Amino acid sequence: MKIGRMSASVKKVVEEKGKKGEKLTQKELYTYLEYREGKFFWREEKRKKNKYKRGYRYERAGYVGLDGNSRIRINGRSYLEHRLVWLYVYGRFPSGGISHINGKLSANFLSNLVEAEEAKDVHPKRQRKGEDRISGVKGVVWCARDGVWIVNRFIGGKRVYLGSHKYLEEAIIISKKKI
To answer: pTM here?
Structure first.
């Protein structure tokens, strides 16, 4: 694109697009957003041209992405809301990832966020329903209706029933046998 002769409005648009690559600062974040009750709200009023532009003053900022994380678009760049919380409070982006203590990606309260050192700590495993009733052994499940442990195994892409047992120890032995 030629930059020679441009009107003031076109130059402003080109300058705005140049900001996309720059990292957001805490000071700049303070000018755009206000953080309260675990959520961000817009400080300044901007007209919405489409759903990705900044919203009205005091309106909840951001949108929920397909992965369940809340995101906020500032200067043409999308940021994860929990990373913005970290920047807002501590003045820097986290060096690694951020883990949600309760496992809910939408709960961006500072008390729920912890800086994770390793990538595996970023998303804690969610507890499965009925996890207290499972055996802890792959392929062995409790059948409450019959009061027995059922052993299944996948062989050649198909589930094979290996029997039901009254005692967990028996079911574990059967599940670990080679077929």
So the answer is: 0.54
